[in-house]
Amino acid sequence: MKRYLIALALLVVAGAAVQAKEHPGKAYVEKNGYGGPATCEAQACHPGSARKFLDTVHWKHASPVTNVDNLEPEKEYGMKNRIYTMCNGNDIVNNLKEIPPNPKTGKTKFTGCNTCHPGDHISDVGSTGTGAEAAIDCLLCHSSAYDYRQRKPFKDEKGRVVMGQDRSVKAAMAVGKPGVKNCMICHEAAGGGVLVKRGFSFTRETDVHAGKGMVCVDCHGAKDHKIPTGYDPNNWASDGIRVACADCHGENPHADEDNNRHVARIACQTCHIPRTGGAVAKDFTRWTQGEDGFFEPTTLRMEANETAPVYAWYDRTVANTPTFIGPKGSRGDRQSRIYPFKLYEGKAYFDRKTGTLLSMDFAPPMATGDTLAGVVSAAKTLGIKEYDPVPGWQTIYFGSSHLVTKEKALSCANCHAPNGALNFKSLGYADEEIRKLTSAALYFDKMAEKQKENW
Amino acid sequence: MRKVSGIVLLLLIAAATAAIFAPVQALADEIKMVGAITKIEISGQDATTATATLKDNKTGELVTVIVNDDLTLDKFKDHRIVPGDEIRLKYEVKDGKNISRYFRKTAGC
User: Fold this and answer.
1) With 80 as the cut, is the pLDDT of residue B18 above it?
2) Which residues pair with B42 in a beta bridge?
3) A163-214 pLDDT, tens per residue?
């Protein structure tokens, strides 16, 4: 415990020192203005950064994926091209564009999956070359004074849809390590609205790390803009670098050895993230018309911390079929541990002939509610000529690695009780084992002693 | 004696009725609406409160709410939330003022 406190104190001091130190080059920006990545690379400040950034998941929205079933080994996967039922579109079929006018109001709007891509849309997902390098919106992630009014799509004089950027001196003078809002501007609204997809907020009230003043990149610390990720069964693309609780907390994080024994087969998240949130189900075959006349996929939304996770063995490899995306693993496999997952069910169109899941261009249904027109448009983009769309459901297990709590972590009695948090039967335990595992006899003496100490 | 018992019975019924309807009244104070922002008023970067006016999609009426939560205030300050954005809003009426309890953009990617 003591060493963690010392480490934390050093981090705080180091953080304060970094913050206090002014970012070099401000005089240059004041004199010359800010012109995008070229300014960042001027005076040999960040040489080659822009070129390297083009090779990251944040730019490509895809990467090689080695732990998921039924993928083509030579192909890269990610938001660019995936077809699943949280986002039934992707950057290709649901490219940012102006949708057709709503018949009732005559109004139109810009929308598309790649709205969050940090380019200008002329240089889009996965683009390369000097034009792409120049189009990178560095300040979107690195400025604490970014004016988000500037980051709106518009049509240029050639009729092309362009994503605006704030390249003001004011924004450029406020550069630094990305703060929480720099990440959340895109990540909190993914999947169709605030907290829809992953369902976590990163605030003092909802996450113990945020409560200690930490920001996203304290755990997801980048190297050459390659950002570490965990092993969410539904988050396939990665920069090849991983992050885990043990990176900071070690393999024996508890003072109590009984708790430490659990670590070998129980992921930290299982006890320390007892709740989840976000959309639990969505129907892409039936869109709901809003008061503004536009349509959105019918979505069952839940708040952060509003739903209970499901628990399953997970060896960090993923079952992937048209109707199921989720963890593989078993009790008998020593690489597997029990993890919590957010369970999600999505309804979309499948091809009756092949059983494959079809994707959707959102522009037609958003304007008119005609979901099949969205399927037709997407199929045309992908060159699919023969298909027979039929509604069906897909189940997805989302990783649950945020909303971390210390105070409200599951304790002995939460799991080791009849009808407790864990369903031991579905986790592969025999009836006699379950009888022992769900008895207070397991922990009674110890908890009684603790209770006495606490009071 | 019979009269006293009658009064007690009446009081019990009144108490039970109050107990049943009190939570309903408390819930009824939270009002939900969806509407576009027409105006945001905030006094500078250090402001700890703001007012936002929204046009209710259903009724067309303008509703002004006081926003106190840090996250939403921050979004006003750096224009992540701006006039024109459609908002899912919950608010309660306290001392004659509409206090925002939930202020979220409806849009996402």
Assistant:
1) no
2) B50
3) 999 999 999 999 999 999 999 999 999 999 999 998 999 999 999 999 999 9
Helix, strand and coil in chain A, % to nearest 5: 30, 15, 55
**Domain ranges within chain B, ordered by starting residue:** 31-105
Class of domain B31-105: mainly beta
- The helix (run of H) or strand (run of E) holding residue A413 is helix A412-415
Return d(Cα A283, Cα A300) in angstroms, integer: 9
Query: Which phi and psi (to 5°) does residue B8 adopt?
Result: -60, -45
Least Cα distance to A185 among B33, B100, B74 occurs for B74
Nearest-CB residue to A291 (from B58, B79, B107): B58
pLDDT digits (tens, 9 = 90+) for A197-256: 989 999 999 999 999 999 999 999 999 999 999 999 999 999 999 999 999 999 999 999
Residue type, B84: G
Residue B108 main-chain phi, psi, to 5 deg: -160, 180
Measured distance CA(A236)–CA(A81) in Å, rounded? 11
Extract the tokens encoding B13: 């019924």
Decide if B80 and A181 are in contact by the 8 Å CB cutoff: yes
**Cα–Cα dist B108/A265, whole Å:** 37
A193 touches chain B (CB under 8 A): yes
Residue B2 has what pLDDT? 56
Question: How far is Cα A188 from Cα A179, in angstroms, rounded to an integer?
Answer: 14
Question: Does the CB of B90 have a partner CB in chain A at under 8 Å?
Answer: no
CA distance B56 to A392: 35
Pick from A116, A148, A191: CB nearest B80: A148
A363 DSSP 8-state letter: H
**For residue B84, which residues of chain A lie inside 8 Å, CB to CB?**
none
Straight-line distance from the first to the last Cα atom of chain B, in angstroms, rounded to the nearest whole number: 72
Q: What is the CA radius of gyration of chain B?
A: 21
Whole-structure pTM value: 0.89
Q: Indicate the DSSP class of residue A321.
A: E
CB A349 within 8 A of CB A287: no
Answer whether A186 touches B (CB < 8 Å).
Answer: yes
pLDDT of residue B14: 56
Neighbouring C-beta atoms of residue A273, cutoff 10 Å: 26
Report the distance separating Cα A311 and Cα A232, nearest Å: 13
Write the DSSP string, A114-182: GGG-SS-SSS-TT--SHHHHHH--HHHHHBTT--TTS--EEE-TTS-EEE-----HHHHTTB-S--HHH
pLDDT at A76: 98
The span from the CA of A200 to the CA of A405, in Å, is: 13
